[in-house]
Specification:
Number of strands: 15
Protein name: Ppx/GppA phosphatase family protein
Pfam families: Ppx-GppA
Strand content: 5-15%
Radius of gyration: 47 Å
């Protein structure tokens, strides 16, 4: 036994009845003086017993801290490494049991491994802002630590950075049990415990709201000359934003004017284009779609056979529309271009195999659907492909051109309701509206575009003299010059003058000083009808659609005054 640490005891037989008497111990440290702590591995001041044979309370506290490895970052140091002899531990084990229990409970409640009197935030006596930290708040903090993975991860990281606490051997019953309980509830061990059970105690998170996906609508128009697809989503009431589009010249009606049948090469070209459209449709979640075929499939004798090939090879079901439906869809596609100052107009769509003409009176209460204001309509069984095959479109002379104009004008004279607009057709608030490749080509040449730009053409105005000048210029060009023009190209070089002849015949019946050019048509009309019937604008959620608009970053080019096509 260490004589410096323990008090000498002398037994006096008979005088004390066998009881031990204690000698005076060295003078205890003065009250209020704090003894300096030694660093790890150095010898600490030896505890000295008082007169009653018990050690000073502060000395017992320091011994417990050394024993728990809390003194100056001495985690992982075995008992005795700080200069505390094993005999001191035995004396500590035999000290006041109640005092040890209170100290252990105080250490446990003050931050799970933090020195007595301090909590995790370094505040004294378990207080926060001058108030005692209640058990309810401790449980709340513990729950937050369990619910917050970032906090748990930070605690686990801190645990990995700290050296492990070495297990201490149990000595003398209760003192060893108190030490074991204290080490088990230390902060690193608690964090590790929460980390392993985070999935069991974490509160279920609320399901994230799904991002609003605007509905998609598709329209396909297989005409005599072109195959066109348009996929769009509704935006403002009466308008939509283009998501995807496709257009290819297939010349399905090639040779139809002379034979009355669709040729094999023409059908093959059309089916290849329809396969591209099928892939685009299958790659998107389309809510409503309408796929139509017009004059070539409507009038050809082998039209049903071609549609069966389309079902088998392209997997698409095409709908053959009549002439009245075709005229109505063309009007619906141009509804947003008509301004409020207009009283009446004649809308025409010059196609490849037919030309639709509609007389529109908007002096009455104006509806959102322009097709409801149609007062008369007609469909001419002639288009740019059939007229060019009949009169020739490659080498066109002024005489040949005059014959084409007279041929179309005779058909218009058979239209009995051509004067139904009456005096409205003579007013200054009357104009023509053309939606076809012919008028857009004339507009591009008039603007002198080096490359066709739909944004500049769609919605522009041309005067009557401007149209006449462009037609005269085209008649003066030979075939190679028309091919070299970027607004015409090789696909339209032999068709553009036939379209100009149909336009001049319309201008003779309904003369007007103004012509409104529209780069839109049946596809836009189909989309307008689909969205209107589906209530896309009535049930649309504007705030969510606005968020989608910002997130997708669509530009002004794709959302301007009305329905768009590319």
């Amino acid at each position: 036994m260490n004589p410096d640490l323990h008090t000498q005891r002398v037994s006096i037989n008979g005088a004390s009845g066998g009881k031990e008497s204690k000698q005076a111990s060295p003078e205890p440290p003065k009250t209020g003086q704090r003894q300096n702590r030694s660093s790890v591995g150095s010898l600490s001041p030896k505890p000295v017993a008082d007169e009653s044979g018990r050690f000073d309370k502060k000395q017992r506290k320091r011994a417990r801290r050394r024993k728990a490895g809390k003194n100056s970052g001495a985690e992982g140091v075995l008992p005795g490494a700080q200069g505390t002899p094993p005999s001191a531990e035995r004396n500590l084990a035999g000290s006041d049991t109640a005092t040890g229990q209170r100290s252990a409970r105080a250490d446990h409640n003050s931050g799970n491994g933090t020195p007595k009197g301090e909590n995790k935030s370094g505040q004294k006596n378990g207080q926060k802002n001058g108030k005692k930290l209640s058990n309810r708040r401790r449980r709340s903090r513990r729950k937050k630590t369990q619910d917050n993975p970032a906090t748990v991860q930070g605690a686990v990281t801190a645990t990995a950075a700290q050296p492990a606490i070495q297990p201490q051997p149990a000595k003398h019953g209760h003192a060893a049990q108190t030490t074991h309980r204290h080490n088990h509830r230390s902060a690193p061990a608690k964090a590790d415990h929460n980390h392993h059970n985070a999935g069991d105690h974490r509160a279920p998170q609320a399901a994230q709201p799904r991002a609003y996906e605007p509905p998609l609508y598709a329209a396909l128009d297989l005409g005599t000359n072109n195959c066109r697809l348009l996929i769009a989503t509704p935006s403002r009431p009466g308008q939509f934003r283009v998501v995807d589009s496709f257009s290819r010249i297939v010349r399905l009606g090639e040779g139809f004017g002379t034979s009355g049948r669709l040729s094999e090469p023409a059908m093959n070209r059309a089916i290849e284009a329809l396969k591209v459209c099928r892939d685009k449709l299958e790659s998107k979640n389309i809510r409503r779609r309408r796929l139509i075929a017009t004059e070539a499939c409507r009038s050809a004798s082998n039209g049903p056979e071609f549609l069966q090939r389309v079902r088998e090879e392209a997997g698409l079901e095409l709908e053959i529309v009549d002439r009245q439906t075709e005229a109505s869809l063309a009007v619906s596609g141009c509804g947003t271009l008509v301004n409020r100052e207009t009283d009446a107009l004649v809308l025409f769509d010059i196609g490849g195999g037919s030309s639709e003409i509609a007389l529109i009176d908007v002096t009455c209460r104006r509806s959102s659907r322009l097709a409801e204001h149609i007062t008369a309509w007609t469909s001419l069984p002639v288009g740019v492909v059939t007229l060019a095959e009949k009169f020739g479109g490659r080498d066109v002379t002024p005489e040949n051109y005059a014959e084409m104009v007279a041929y179309v004008a005779a058909m218009l004279n058979d239209f009995s309701e051509r004067h139904k607009l009456g005096e409205l057709a003579q007013s200054t608030h009357f104009h023509l509206l053309g939606t076809s490749g012919t008028v857009t080509t004339l507009a591009g040449i008039h603007l002198g575009l080096e490359r066709y730009d739909r944004r500049r053409v769609d919605g522009m105005w041309m005067g009557s003299q401007d149209v006449t000048d462009m037609t005269t210029k085209l008649l003066s060009w030979d075939f190679k010059t028309r091919v070299a023009n970027p607004c015409i190209g090789a696909d339209r070089a032999d068709l553009v003058l036939a379209g100009c002849a149909i336009l001049d015949a319309i201008r003779q019946i309904w003369p007007s000083e103004r012509l409104l050019v529209a780069d839109r048509g049946l596809r836009e009309g189909i989309l307008t009808e689909l969205m209107s019937r589906d209530g896309a604008w009535r049930h649309r959620r504007p705030h969510q659609a606005k968020e989608t608009y910002i997130k997708n970053g669509s530009g002004r080019d794709t959302q301007i005054k009305g329905r768009q096509s590319i």
